[in-house]
Every structure is written in C-alpha cells, then in structure tokens.
Amino acid sequence: MRYRELGRSGLSVSEIGYGAWGIGESSWVGATEDESVRALHRAIDLGVNFIDTARGYGESERIVGRVVRERAGDEVRVATKVPPKNGTWPAPHGLDPVETFPGEHIRTSLETSLRASGLDHFDVLQFHVWSDDWVGRGDWLETIAELKQEGKIRLFGVSINDHQPDSALALALVRSGAVDSVQVIYNIFDQAPADTLLPACEEHGVGVIVRVALDEGGLTGRITAGTTFPEGDWRNRYFRNDRPAQVEQRVAAIVADLALTPDEIAGTALRFVLSSPAVSTVIPGMRTVRNVERNTALSDGRPLSTDQLAVLAKHRWQRNFYS
User: What are the two backbone dihedrals, phi and then psi, of residue 149, each rounded to the nearest 5 degrees?
Assistant: First the structure.
C-alpha cells in the first residue's frame, strides 16, 4: 500500500481508503455484519488506514468502531460526517447555517457518533453537505475549533454536493484556511472537479477524498441493460429506466478505446482517480474480502499514461443520476 498526505494536515492516509456506506445495512441491500467485519480486517491487513463513515450510514459507525477497537495496535484513521440539521441533501442556495450546522447540532451529532463507534475521537469530522454561503456565518467554525482543542476531532472537512463541484465548489472555504479536506465525486464520467476544484485544493494544501470513483457500480462493467437490484436497494432508483443501458454503452466505448478486457474497467477507473496528484485518497465501497483484495492491489504506483488520460478525457459524461 502506498500513502499520501491529506493536504497540509500532516496526516498520512492510504491512497486506497475504505468507503463504509455500503456496510451500514441500510441503503445497500446484501451486506452482513460478519462479512463487513472480515472485509474491514482484511483491508487493514493490506495497509488500508483510512475509513470513511457517517452518522447517516445506518450501522456503519458501530461496525467500523468495533473493528478499529479490535485493531488497537494499528493506526487507523476514521472520518465521519455530521448530517445537516434540516435533513436536506443536497444543500440548496440561500440557507442560513443556523438551519444546517449550528454549533449545538454539530456537537450533539459528534457525541452520538462517538458513542455509536466506541471511539474517543475521529480523525476527520465532515459536514455531509456544504454551501459556500456559510463561510463567515454562524457558529460552526468556533464549534469546530473547540472540538479540535478538546481532542474529539483532529481535522475538519466538508463533503461537496453531488455532481455540483462548481456551484458548490467551496472555493471561499478552501481559500480561508478553515478546512483540512474536501470530499467530492470524481470519476471517468464526472471529471468536472479537475477543472477548478482539484487545482485549488492542491494550491491551498487541502486534502481531497474522492468518493464514487466507480460510479456506484457503473464503472465496474457489471451494470448492463436489464440490471436490477434487490427490493429496498437505493440503486434501483439510481439505475432506473434505461440508465443501465446507457451505462453499458458508455463503458463499452471506454473498453474499446483503451483496448481493455471488460474486467479491467474497475481497476482503470481507480487508476484514473489516483493519477491526479491532488487526490489524497479514494474510498471505494468494499463490502467483501474479494473487493478489498482487488481494489487494494491497485496501489502499486502505476498511474495511467498521458495517452490513456487523453483518451479518457473524451469520455466525460455530464449527468446526475441522483436526481
């Protein structure tokens, strides 16, 4: 496993991190706690030292905390997220931060997360949504400073709204020096963060945590026309109507243009993300030991070539399946 600095924080994180939404036994159907625990342990065995969870991920914080406590001898960094008080995802423009992240709500959410996980601190506390309208307003910044001083968190980050890297870019926040990391969707299809967000983070020493590198499974090659998911699985909405067929066609074009075999697309998608020097870590969801072993094997210092990246630039696909 190779490691990168999380911006200017001094925190070293594995370039392949662990996205723990899927193990929370809520929105993703099929996870079991026994397999999730095995997958987490195997990830740590293979050098993963960064796990991303959230208050809103069902049982995820509890399961992650259980494994981290069982691996007390390993230095594992855990990030979690505070949901907005008003429960609105993504954050529309015009909201006052007192509606979304008042200090009392931040503290209460963190204390709940600490109890759920059994941990005494989190390495990164992130707001689960963000709007640059909130810079310089409200008491959230003072609360974050207090929580750092109390040792309950080490770093502060924000999770940028889905597929809105420009309108919710957080440039003012990045430039303010108040944030240590940003989490953003970045993948072969959604390349918009590379336009301005990633360069700004690199310039100002802000760490970048990349989520959805595999497009919720779209960039694994396993989504084809007619693909369905178990009842209650949120992907039935994400991949509804003719979307699986659209994805299948787009993936087939990438495979053809890069002369890949179909089972190489997922690895190529992760290498695409890691080819950016601005990226600190990518956090694919890994619900099985098999997925852990396949994904961590890509941390081998072999980014995509300039020619490959030029080809992939042509496969940018601006759309929002979350809507």
Answer: -65, -35
